[in-house]
Predict the structure.
Amino acid sequence: MNTIKNVKVLGITALFAMASFSASASLMYQKVVSNSSVKGDAVQSKEMAIKNGQMMAQSLSQADSYELSRELRVSSYQSDSGSFELLNSKLTVEEFWGESGEIVYQPVIDVKYSYDRIDRD
């Protein structure tokens, strides 16, 4: 009787293992290279915008893959958040009129990055 019970348990376990494997096997990954911009707060001086931008760039370069995926706002449903890699970044400062009519400066980090996109069946 115990032998039949053990066979049933093994059969059920094998069935769950195959279902689990087939679910994960249906996911396909594709390497994607993309570009994005991360903007900082507008400030009163160009020097302060450059300083803030340098800190932003340093923070991005030190971010782990998960933090980078969140900062770049890529859907976690469509991406492997453990696969993000920063390839390149460039700091620029945008100059424009503020709400009070004064000139303000905003740091912008243009980034090139890669990640594995999940193609679901």
About this structure: The beta strands are 27-39, 85-97, 103-120. The helical segments are 2-25, 46-62, 65-71. Confidence is low (pLDDT under 50) at residues 19-23. The CA atoms of residues 4 and 10 lie 10 Å apart.
